[in-house]
Write a structure and sequence with these properties.
By secondary structure, the protein is of the alpha/beta class. It is built from 13 helices and 25 strands. Strands 1, 2, 4, 5, 8, 10, 12, 13, 14 and 15 form a ten-stranded mixed β-sheet that branches. Strands 16, 19, 20, 21, 22, 23, 24 and 25 form an eight-stranded mixed β-sheet that branches. A three-stranded antiparallel β-sheet has the order 3-7-6, with no helix packed on it.
């Protein structure tokens, strides 16, 4: 029915890209995962290297030093295949040697495939590395560069066992061999990688990636890394990603320029059937406006980066009412199956860079904008998995769910909302925010409640 956003959207890929991956701690996994995702979208991909990569038996391979032959074979194979591996020779080690950069440039210019993914160096399976004078080997015509580090390098000594070329890393980040890699050393390494990559491909969009984020405890360390790195990056950073590539939903954190705080969406859930009311309660009048308009107006003052409304197909009046408001209306064709589908429609429709979604209920017109603002402030500081308001000790709505909870939310069924996953989340990652607004605990389900609201 609905799907989670993928790497293609999060990376902001255009119709044609040459992406060079370099560093340590998961770049091959990232490259292969992106190739598979593009393939599932029926996009054509050339997977290659400017150094050496392991043979990829999953995809057909073209191994030749003849550029014209490589071009012909690519054209032939890409008619029926979505991903093809290109190399110049098969080495005794089982690795594939890369083609000349001039051939890669020619293939891109001729449009043989819209996406060319390049592994631009090696790290001998270490989470962090030092760079020889010739590394990485990034084509100057790359449109995106992805320097990648493994967060499991934190706490390790700069030694042969844990670092590829430890003596070079020590020199490049100004540390002694044997020293433990702390946050400062980690940031210096990432900054060095970024600077070297941007020197080789100065017009490329830079998207640094910290992998193995599942090893970080909560969002604090990721936030500290982001703030420390982005305080004075060595060049222009397009966005910063924290990933756990071993997981089905790999991107845990996203920082986007101007990096003030994570991107937050607000979805107003309006697809309920108002069975107890007997009519669409969201269309009822309240001081000259519909109940839904009051709810949306409060959400608009929340400070969220985007606001949209999730509706049923037959609620055409909502589309007409908000047609000139600049607020999107998202149709949920599965609304009859329960609230869970509206939650999932909201996730699927949210901005690709969304870190957290506020789920607001359309029948809560008395929620003060300050309640939204308090949730956003608390969440931006702590990046908890769930942030909710409570008034005089009573839990209320709206509630904010971090993107790391989305795989759980996508498994909900029937009339379960976000509360259906709370039992699966450790208490330490759930944050209640005490606020002075009673509206977070008040909704409208019956005629009596509506009349009481009119009296107020």
């Amino acid at each position: 029915m609905f799907k989670l956003p993928g790497l293609r959207e999060i990376l902001g890929l255009g119709e044609r890209e040459i992406i060079s991956f370099y560093g340590a701690g998961g770049k091959t996994s990232f490259l292969l995962r992106l190739a598979e995702e593009l393939s599932q979208d029926n996009k054509k991909v050339i997977l290659t290297t400017t150094t050496k990569i392991f043979s990829q038996q999953k995809y057909p391979q073209i191994i030749t030093c003849d550029g014209d032959l490589a071009r012909e074979e690519l054209q032939r194979l890409l008619v029926r295949e979505n991903v093809v591996v290109l190399g110049s020779s098969l080495l005794p080690s089982g690795k594939i040697d890369g083609p000349k950069p001039s051939l890669i440039s020619r293939l891109h210019a001729e449009g043989i495939a819209p996406y060319i993914l390049i592994e631009a160096d090696g790290a001998n399976r270490r989470p962090i590395k030092g760079y020889a004078w010739h590394e990485p080997v990034i084509p100057s015509f790359s449109t995106i560069i992805v320097p990648l580090l493994g967060s499991d390098a934190l706490g390790l000594p700069i030694s042969e066992e844990h670092v590829h070329r430890p003596e070079l890393l020590a020199h490049q980040i100004g540390a002694a061999e044997g020293k433990t890699i702390g946050l400062e050393e980690f940031i210096r390494s990432l900054a060095f990688m970024l600077a070297r990559g941007q020197k080789q491909a100065p017009t490329a969009r830079a998207i640094p990636v910290i992998n193995k984020t599942d090893l970080l405890e909560g969002g604090d360390l990721a936030s500290n890394i982001a703030k420390a790195f982005l305080a004075s990056p060595p060049g222009d950073v397009y966005r910063l990603l924290f990933t756990a590539l071993a997981e089905d939903f790999p991107v845990h954190y996203i920082w986007e320029k101007p990096f003030a705080r994570p991107f937050i969406s607000c979805a107003v859930l309006a697809a309920g059937f108002s069975k107890r009311m007997g009519k669409d309660k969201l269309a009822l009048d309240l001081k000259g406006k519909t109940i839904l308009e009051h709810t949306v107006e409060s959400a608009r003052q929340s400070g969220a980066d985007e606001i949209f409304i999730v509706t049923r197909p037959e609620q055409e009046w909502i589309g007409r009412l908000f047609s000139t408001s600049g607020i999107r209306v998202v149709n949920n064709p599965y609304s009859a199956l329960g609230m869970s589908t509206s939650v999932q429609a909201a996730i699927s429709a949210s901005h690709p860079l969304t870190q957290g979604i506020i789920f607001a209920l359309g029948d809560q017109p008395l929620v003060d904008p300050g309640a939204y603002q308090a949730l956003i402030k608390s969440y931006s500081e702590g990046l908890d998995l769930v942030t909710y308001p409570h008034y005089l000790g009573k839990k209320g709505n709206p509630q904010l769910f971090d993107r790391r909870t989305w795989p759980l939310l996508m498994k909900l069924r029937g009339d379960q909302g976000g509360r259906g996953i709370i039992s699966q989340i450790p208490d330490k990652w759930i944050c209640g925010v005490e606020i002075p607004y009673s509206g977070v605990t008040e909704d409208i389900d019956t005629v009596e409640e509506y009349k009481r609201l009119l009296g107020q």
